[in-house]
Amino acid sequence: MDILYKIFVDPFVQMGTSPDLLVQTLWDGLVAGVLYALIALGFVLIFKASGVFNFAQGIMVVFAALTLVGLHEHGVPAFVALALTVGVMFILAFGVERLMLRPLVNQSDIILFMATFGLTYFLIGLGQLVFGGNPKVMITSDLYLPSGAIEFKRFGGYVSLQKIDIAAVIIASVMVAVLAVFFQRTRIGRALRAVADSHQAALSVGISLEQIWVIVWFAAGVVALATGIMWGARSEVSFSLQIIALKALPVLILGGLTSIPGAIVGGLIIGIGEKLGEFYWGPLLGGGIETWLAYVIALGFLVFRPQGLFGEKIIERI
Amino acid sequence: MLYREAGQYKTSYAADMAVFPILQDQIGIAVILFIGFVVVPLIGSEFLLNSVLIPFLIFALAAIGLNLLTGYTGLLSLGTGGFMGVGAYACLKLTTFFPQVNIVVWILASGFFSAAVGVLFGLPSLRIKGFYLAVATLAAQFFLEWCFIRIPWLYNSSVSGAIEVPLRTIAGIPVTGPTATSLTRYLVVLAIVVVMTWVASNLVHGRIGRMWMAVRDMDLAAELIGIRLLRTKLLAFAVSSFYCGVAGAMMVFLWYGGAEADVFAIDQSFIILFMVIIGGLGTLIGSFFGAALIYILPIALRAVPTAFGLPIRPAAAEQLTFVIVGALIIVFLVVEPAGLARLWQIGKQKLRVWPFPY
């Protein structure tokens, strides 16, 4: 009885009696969720257009942030460094298309997946070789990002919101909006959607697959840069971020592999669910359940809705 | 010239279906076994045994395990590290409770625990496949890793939180523990790997292997010809996890001699998946090639700068190794997506007709 009470009653009593903690936890979850969603967004962009499950998205986040900070350390002004980093991401996208995707066209999914894993190794080595393996501090103030916290008294206690978190949420929303407009309203966006629907049909109406792939990888690179800046500003720029990026996988499962709104909603559900679970139910199991809770949520979800929240229903034909 | 099958007649169905139908192949495998069991123990240095051959054999066994699942049955798994960990921890608990029993028995028995866990986490495979299944197995990986860290009972509540391998002897010779020589451990590992490879070869050439391959090629069609999907898939998970569990137990007991939970982290799963794919999906010999390439190549690369006397920092050499291995993986996939085993096959075919092109 006692254990049942602790699982089913006690957490909710705690939520009721101290709403300030609940709000704080929800906010933390929301911010974590936004960052997961941003990583997942990079995955979805590439998956939609080229059918490649890009394992390297996590390291691209680290690599972009490292390039930015590393350039700044060598005396390049912050915004010039930002522009240069965008340039580096473009070169990366171009190189990936030329050297990896084009020779591997028409190979099975798992081979392409493995190739992105090779890319991950390559970028880890290159990043450490050029910029060193030590964690770096993100150049928050040079990029005019706010720091510090807003505290306000409500819900019977203090709730503190980090300003950088608020900025992260705003920037993420703006970025998603821009991407949505880009996809829906521009010529290239239409081409991207066409490629996502069918490679062959897109080719037959004269869309250049190579060009689209470069654009998509570049877009994923820019998303990675934004994620890297936000995440780096919250903690630090280090290679351990790459493992956290794996959290984007359950987000994708939840949201559906091909859906941009799905990535965002999935990210929020995973972020909030995991923080709530850790805070209220974690102590029962000895803590640290954050590392696997997201995957278990996704696993449970898979059993009931394999295509995800917004994914297309997969119809298999013999 | 020597590799010719002319004059070797196959007079029975069994001879035609043999794993090594050509006499030269049989001689070749005998020579390799002779080198492994006799020549290497005679001339092998401590470094060769302990840092190259033992880990190579262990990784090859784990790669065979994953290959049975991913290569033969077509189920993508990222939980290999976790399953290996289950084997290692099960072996530790078993030998703690029954110290008098032969340690090799426990290393093999720990595979059954790993198999049970594998079946449990393989259950979703009936409904999902591909990347979705990969994420499901990631849940296994992270959950098991968490268990290894958070449940002190598993590592006998040792202060460091690590597995400490106790001394176990067979007929008075120490096999595990700090006093065991690398030669003894090498021979035990080699024997286990050879026997288990032989078993795996029989499995995949028999009815079970054909069932697995039928499921891989098209599960709907396999179901129509009367293969029960759930049982076949779960059997693949069980056998695969068994192999991984034994490899994990060997890794801790016969190689490291003590290990923390992070040995079985997600990186391990990826590295083994790598070996399987670089080596060749659905081939046993490919698992050995893959393990050799992924494990021995970085060692060789690290030895290159010192051999030429180049002044390079160890850290930089490490990072350069990452860059080169990453680039090589992409190059290998571009050159031969079917893996090293395919290259081997092409080479053998060329050799058969040499010096003529056809």
Q: What does this 3D model show about the protein?
A:
The complex is a heterodimer of chains A (318) and B (358). The model of chain A has no long low-confidence stretch (mean pLDDT 81). Chain A has 14 helices and 2 strands. Chain A starts with a helix and ends in a 14-residue tail after the last helix. Chain A is 72% helix and 4% strand. Chain A has one domain. Chain A has helices at 2-8, 10-17, 19-50, 57-73, 78-101, 109-131, 163-185, 187-197, 199-204, 209-234, 241-244, 248-255, 260-285, 290-304; strands at residues 149-154, 157-162. In chain A, a hairpin with a 2-residue loop joins strand 1 (149-154) and strand 2. In chain A, helix 3 (19-50) crosses helix 12 and helix 13 (260-285) packs across helix 14. Chain A is mostly helical. Chain A has a two-stranded antiparallel sheet with strand order 1-2. By secondary structure, chain B is mainly α. Chain B has 14 helices and 4 strands. Chain B folds into 2 domains: 1-7 and 21-42; 44-353, ABC transporter involved in vitamin B12 uptake, BtuC, CATH 1.10.3470. Chain B is globular and about 65 Å long. In chain B, the strands form 2 sheets. Chain B has a two-stranded antiparallel sheet. A two-stranded antiparallel ribbon of chain B has the order 2-3. In chain B, a hairpin with a 2-residue loop joins strand 2 and strand 3 (173-176). Chain B has helices at 13-16, 23-43, 46-72, 80-97, 103-122, 131-150, 182-205, 207-217, 219-224, 229-256, 266-279, 284-307, 314-335, 340-353; strands at 163-164, 168-170, 173-176, 258-259. Chains A and B meet through helix 6, helix 12 and helix 14 of A and helix 6, helix 11 and helix 13 of B.
